[in-house]
Design brief:
mainly alpha, two-stranded antiparallel ribbon, 4 strands, about 40% helix, Cytochrome Bc1 Complex, Chain D, domain 2, 11 helices
Amino acid sequence: MTNRVVQRRFAFILFSGMLICWVVWLWPRLTYSEIDGLPLSSGLLFAIPSFDSIPSTPEGNRIRFGYNLVVNTETYAKAFVGNGLSCRNCHLDAGRKVGAGTYVGVPYAYPQYKARVGREISLEERINECFERSLNGKALPPKSPEMDAIQAYISWLSQDVPPSADLSWLGFPLMTMTRKPDKQHGKRVFADSCAGCHGPDGQGTMVAPPLWGPRSFNIASGLARLSKAAAFIKATMPFTQPGILSDTEAYDVAAFMNSHPRPDYALKALDYPKGGKPVDSPY
């Protein structure tokens, strides 16, 4: 087989993978049904509201703006974003997909104690942690249109969640292994399962964000921790077939991803003022 044929086949496979990723990544309304019945441990059911139910009112306009901020953060909050990511990259389907960084029910989880801060923080503060760490940018001003809109969107998504719900679907269970991660195995998993969307060099493509380097999340982001990155990957990746990776594959590819350099965080010395820093903290 000639080199030209091999190159053409590789280009076709890469293009096909990117096309599939583009359809499901950039069109969140097409990814999942508009109404998702969600079982709670209490036996109750609630529904994620339809976009069509957003009212034609000033509050509805704030909700729509919040949705746009989540889906296209780099466009609608450009002054506050310092890398190539948007909120939707961690909060899949614009925060609507339960088990994938969902926003559904989040208003009831705050105020919440955070060891990283050493005190209870508000939802507004948690949103700004994402901007400063995951988006490697700047905090939104209090009561700014952007902050109000994101909170309005999250509250709208959560309108049918009973206040007494246990919120057990939020977050990801941390993944730990009894052995050291195998980064070389992770490199192979990345090439087979991740490079099609994120690029062979991990620097992102038009359909998926950069996973390391200057345009990725910084070292103080949750995903910079191996246990959190592995849990996120296990639950949500590959984007077109989430859940197909084994625990070992997710753990090793997370280690490979986090073995690369990424932006620093200037205020990292202020984290964990009362102790309790996780063993997998990268700083």
